[in-house]
Amino acid sequence: MSTTTTPFPEGFLWGGATAANQIEGAYREGGKGLSVQDVMPRGIVAPRTAEPTPDNLKLEGIDFYHRYADDIALFAEMGFGVYRFSIAWSRIFPNGDDTEPNEEGLAFYDRVLDELEKHGIEPLVTISHYETPLNLAEKYDGWTSRELISFYERYARTLFERYGSRVKYWLTFNEINSLLHAPFMSGGINTPKDELTDAQLYQAMHHELVASARATRIAREVAPDAQVGCMVLSMPIYPLTPAPADAVAVMDADHANLVYGDVHTRGRYPGYFLRTLREKGIELDITDQDREDLLNTVDFVSFSYYMSIAETADPAKKTAGKGNIMGGVPNPTLEASEWGWQIDPVGLRLVLNQFWDRWQKPLFIVENGLGAKDRLVEVDGVKTVVDDYRIAYLNDHLVQVGEALEDGVTVLGYTSWGCIDIVSASTAQLSKRYGFIYVDRNDDGSGSLERYRKKSFDWYAEVIRTNGATLTR
């Protein structure tokens, strides 16, 4: 039955989220340079190509570059109060190490912001969302090089100076804790993963954390009213058995995931991470200036949530979950999506409480959703998708957000991932759809790119209109 009251506070920000490399297309228009995504045609598991290839669906995306006004109007029709999008670094600095920004790229995002302002939608901007300029990967080996800190600093300052009066909420890096697992996509690291040392990966992690902290400092200088957040991939972890060794395995896995948020919110490396470095024989290159920079902690913590995992100390039971780049083992008590991601609404409440208790910073859920193979049908003469499975998934997760709010957790807002169908980051498919809006494009690149409202479109609009009062328990 429907609730008659809602735990969601007045001013809670409801909306949706996308990334430039999965939505914009126009990969060489407007002075844009190549990014790492332009040579990743088959998702994160396949090797990169030397040049962009026709089978890379991200090169055209869903043509948001030319259709942004119509798409934002559809977001406004749903009642969005916030829209999370990323700025393509190589659209602003085509090579990444350019000394001057590309005005055509800056002007494009001016136009996007104009449309959002017209409809009263708050922008939430990700500065770097898996879109490192390709030149920085090939010339510097991505974030393994300290030089990228200054390039990112220049890029961030350019954005704050251009848009600082128009954008209140900023995220520095998307899912920064994915770096160790997907080094080319997440960190523009060109060296093959199997050739990278732990020392190189941890040094790259340090460079990104310093760059993020410097961006936070610059924002406070240039745009003092702005709020800067970090963005991490959340992954609640359960022990596979009650064995104490499995509980320790969970603690160790949690530490590897939480260190990024610990540094962003506390300004220093925690003791458990320093132990990891000692035991691996790694001495990071950390300057006094780095230590000072890291003290620029974030205003809020944002995160993605799709699934939980289990963990065990028993090597015989370590069977990796399908589609999960973060490790772990499948939880036998949970069902999974078509792509093998285990569905766990309660895990969202758990991670909200964990993050709030640990960091005492406002939280923002900036990615959550269900990837599924939708089927376009006609209902009463109107083309749509009857996606009751998506409605059920989102309803159950949002109910758990309400539970966390009742627990006393401060949550700023919720942006459903892929609010309009986009090219999947993990598989580079269009058939893995998340949106409330169906886009007529297929995995082979065919399709009209026409947009159609799914059943979930009206459902989400009503959730937003009632501030969550129509959610069912």
Structural write-up:
It is a single chain. With about 475 residues, this protein is α/β, with parallel strands linked by helices. It contains 14 helices and 14 strands. It has helices spanning about 20-25, 65-80, 90, 105-120, 135-140, 145-165, 185, 200-220, 245-265, 270-280, 290-295, 345-360, 390-405, 455-465; strands at about 15, 80-85, 120-130, 170-175, 225-235, 235-240, 300-305, 310, 365, 375-380, 380-385, 410-415, 435-440, 450-455. Helix 2 packs parallel to helix 4 and helix 12 (about 345-360) packs parallel to helix 13. InterPro entries: GH (IPR017853), GH_1_N_CS (IPR033132), Glyco_hydro_1 (IPR001360), Glyco_hydro_1_AS (IPR018120). This is 6-phospho-beta-glucosidase.
SS summary, helix count: 14
**Uncertain residue ranges:** none
* Mean pLDDT value: 96
Full CATH superfamily name = Glycosidases
**How much of the sequence is in beta strands?**
5-15%
The first-to-last residue Cα distance is 6 Å
Q: How would you sum up the global shape?
A: globular
CATH level-3 fold name: TIM Barrel
Please outline what is shown here.
The chain has 473 residues and is of the alpha/beta class. The chain is 38% helix and 14% strand. A hairpin with a 2-residue loop joins strand 10 (377-379) and strand 11.
Secondary-structure map:
Blueprint: E1 13-17, H1 20-23, H2 64-78, E2 82-86, H3 89-92, H4 103-118, E3 122-128, H5 134-140, H6 147-163, E4 169-173, H7 183-187, H8 198-222, E5 227-233, E6 237-239, H9 244-266, H10 271-280, H11 288-294, E7 300-304, E8 309-311, H12 345-359, E9 363-367, E10 377-379, E11 382-384, H13 388-406, E12 411-417, E13 437-439, E14 451-453, H14 455-465
Parallel strand pairs: 1-2, 1-12, 2-3, 3-4, 4-5, 5-7, 6-8, 7-9, 9-12
Antiparallel strand pairs: 10-11, 13-14
Helix pairs in contact: 2-4, 6-8, 8-11, 12-13
Keywords: Glycosidase, Hydrolase
EC number: 3.2.1.86
GO molecular function: 6-phospho-beta-glucosidase activity
